[in-house]
Amino acid sequence: MTRVVLNIALAGALSVAALNAADAMEMRGWNIHVEDYPVSIAMESFADEIAEKTGGELTAKVFHNGVLGDQPDAIEQMRLGVIDFGEFNLGPMGQAVPEANVTSLPFIFTSVPEMYELMDGEVGEKIGEGMKARGIMPLAYYSAGARSFYNSIRPINTPADVEGMKIRVMSNDLFVKMVEAMDGNATPMAFGEVYQSIKTGVVDGAENNTPSYESTNHYEVAKYFSLTEHLIIPECLCMSLRTWDKLTEEQQKIVMDAAKASAISQREMWAEREAASLEKIEAAGTQVNTVEDKAPFQEAMAPVYDNFLKANPNLTELVNLIRDSQ
Ligand code: BDP
Q1: Does the CB atom of residue 172 touch ligand 1 within 6 A?
Q2: What is an annotated GO biological process for this record, any one (predicted)?
Q3: Which residues, other chains included, contact 93 with Cβ-Cβ below 8 Å and sequence gap of 6+?
Q4: Nearest atom, ligand 1, residue 207 CA
Q5: Contact 72/190 with Cβ under 8 angstroms?
Q6: Does the C-beta of 32 come closer than 6 Å to ligand 1?
Q7: How far is the CA of 191 from the centre of ligand 1 (A)?
Q8: Is residue 238's pLDDT more than 90?
Q9: CATH of 25-143+233-275, one of 3.40.190.170, 3.30.1440.10, 3.30.70.270, 3.40.630.30
């Protein structure tokens, strides 16, 4: 008798467990960075909060170091719902979402705080609408600071210093045009290939923020870092719309709140990491030079704007929205 009762109870418990397992959903997330990077730490806190608030019904596993593929591929995978979420730079995202390209125009934002303010407001909303139309649900905007040029040959102080240099860029035609505007040779290439390419002379340099230059050890092979700060491109923690649509309203709210909270901490960690990275690269022998006069770079890169607006007249309004808020 006792045994029968126990068995029934056990069977009941098991079927509840089976039901929960069937209901529970684990989402897979893409990240290109190493585990101790501000983006990675913030993504982990996003995942922890989701698991905690849903009582384990919804979980998120973050795959760091780009193991789920290179960035442009991963964006496509996410649109298809093969990857559920990820943290993407709006540069490579411009291939899929034209609206995102406005943030890849050189010197479009004048400072990182200004970028935050605009991305948290109407500009971010407009770009987000573009993402949604292409299967991507934006959750929150992270920081990637400002990007500057670095190379193994010489410090860059004027656009003329870039002439003839082979520079790796992220995959987006705008960046090719940007380097060509200074008579440099641009090579779009995956992030993970840059170290070896500089080391073997396939390219002379690249452009990025100090935390990425430091975390990838590029400072070992390209010792001139010139603070041109020509691009301030936001990053997006976002989700496949296919995955988003599978969530209950309550889960969507939990995911959205967790994303927003993670962005606040990411931006704080970002500022700290920038300072720490600068210290580390200087100690390692990088020659960092500030670029006092950025006007010649802005002038040289101006045709990038003109050509972009000529090719995308429908985005003029969005560019003006940024300009008018400055
Ligand atoms: C880093 C971005 C990352 C890009 C990388 C790159 O955070 O998303 O993949 O630059 O240059 O700053 O490819």
Answers
A1: no
A2: transmembrane transport
A3: 75, 100, 131, 136, 236
A4: 11
A5: no
A6: yes
A7: 7
A8: yes
A9: 3.40.190.170
